[in-house]
């Protein structure tokens, strides 16, 4: 039994373009082709695709996925065991987050004030107020910081809700490209990076391509930024950085 690329894309919830890309980079070659040269996938190919998608969901870059799956000494059962362990760890963290949200909901319903420690224990040592003070210390004298302060001072609650929704949508589009295995220097990823840069320019401060690449580097270098993007999708911080850099090169 074999399946067309369209059927496999539908089974797996990926795009046909993703499967073509996996074939082109040698990650997943179809087991056969029909007389017209069209890709046909067998059961072994589907098993490999399942493994690829497991590792991709866990944030592994495509080159590492290929190295893991093509290791001649690797046991398929060991792949599943490793994936299970990683997923279990992630589930545990998400359960902690869900419990914290439930705790906050219940406290609000009962009109109980949580202590600062209770509110933020799930986030570790990150202190938003300290970070704001750090931002002022580091960039307070720059034109960009002053422009941001001037613009945001006039924003209403509805403005913030709209901006948050727009920014979240940009991040989701970038995360979807990462999940599909689309290269960070592809036209699609660079286009989203450019949209990200323009959003900053519209909403906060003039953001040149050079400034934008510096921002991308900070996403990776500063663990607080990295954690924000990793929470959206593992690997997103590096992917964002690479797409932002590729976009700058394209324009410069």
Automatic annotation (TrEMBL):
Name by which UniProt lists this protein: MerR family transcriptional regulator
Keywords tagged on the record: Activator, DNA-binding, Transcription, Transcription regulation
Domain HTH merR-type: 1-71
Origin: domain of life: Bacteria
């Amino acid at each position: 039994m074999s399946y067309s690329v369209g059927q496999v894309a539908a089974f797996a919830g990926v795009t046909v373009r993703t499967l073509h890309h996996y074939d082109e980079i040698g990650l997943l070659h179809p087991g056969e082709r029909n007389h017209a040269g069209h890709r046909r996938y067998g059961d072994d190919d589907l098993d490999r695709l399942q493994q690829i998608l497991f590792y991709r969901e866990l944030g592994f870059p495509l080159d590492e996925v290929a190295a893991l799956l093509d290791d001649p000494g690797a046991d398929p059962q060991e792949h599943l065991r490793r994936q299970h362990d990683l997923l279990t760890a992630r589930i545990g963290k998400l359960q902690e987050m869900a419990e914290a949200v439930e705790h906050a909901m219940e406290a609000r319903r009962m009109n109980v004030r949580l202590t600062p420690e209770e509110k933020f224990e799930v986030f570790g040592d990150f202190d938003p107020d300290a970070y704001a003070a750090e931002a002022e210390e580091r960039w307070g004298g720059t034109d960009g910081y002053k422009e941001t302060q001037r613009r945001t001072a006039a924003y209403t609650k509805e403005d913030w809700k709209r901006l948050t929704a727009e920014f979240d949508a940009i991040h989701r589009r970038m995360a979807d490209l990462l999940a599909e295995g689309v290269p960070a220097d592809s036209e699609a990823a660079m286009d989203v990076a450019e949209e990200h840069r323009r959003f900053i320019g519209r909403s906060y401060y003039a953001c040149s391509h050079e400034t934008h690449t510096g921002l991308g580097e900070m996403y990776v270098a500063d663990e607080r930024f990295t954690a924000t993007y990793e929470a959206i999708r593992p690997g997103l911080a590096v992917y964002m950085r690479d797409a932002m850099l590729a976009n700058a090169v394209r324009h410069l």
